[in-house]
Amino acid sequence: MTVLSAMALAGVPEVRPGDDLAAILTTAAGGDLRSGDVIVLAHKVVSKAEGAIVQLDGVTASARALELAGALGKDPRQVQVILDQSAEIVRAEHGVLISRSHHGFVCANAGVDASNAGAPGELVCLPRDPDASARALRAALPGRPAVVIADSFGRAWRHGQVDVAIGIAGLAPLEDWRGRTDAAGRELRATWIAIADEAAAAADLVRDKSSREPAVLVRGLERHVTADDGPGAAALLRSLGEDLFR
User: Fold this and answer.
1) Do 106 and 146 fall into the same domain?
2) Low-confidence ranges of the chain (pLDDT < 50)
3) Whether 163 and 177 share a structural domain
4) Does this model's pTM top 0.90?
5) Which residue from 29, 236, 34 is spatially nearest to 149, judged by alpha carbons?
């Protein structure tokens, strides 16, 4: 029987640009990090450490940003930051701006967010390369646990948000069961399990979003932890040719 545990790490301070995130996490974990562990991080601490923060006072809205802001009831400067972080605007209506980020993520506001930003007038963007961030962090952590950088995404057909993996190092992002058989011997044709997304969602259940608990230590996923860093979250993205909703 597999047992899965998830524990939010207490004592993580407010992260500032240039902070040594690996040292902060090592201290929060009491130095007890193992090779089969998975550290799941809210992307904002990674973004803050890397300086992926925009000050609204320094943003000038373009004509396109002004147009969208008027239609959606948003701050034109915030819309401009979203445009800067977007490769494509997918949908803009009912007060919602859905975009495809430069990473390839289809999500609200290209992942740009003001919550837990640290100061008024600040916006936090996604890390420039979340997979590279996860790999660098894994290399710096004692025991080389797998690292998952997570963000909350909505679902097109369901209410609410679920944390998903946007950066991965050392955890198999997917487990392919296609071609195997179920308990009754029937061939599985579509079962392709998003391991990293499920780990991100499980970790989010033990975090309190109103307090400083951006890091969760997950144990019990050793069979999915890999010695090499693996393909990262890029493996989870559908190509544009597979997008059935375009």
Assistant:
1) no
2) none
3) yes
4) yes
5) 236
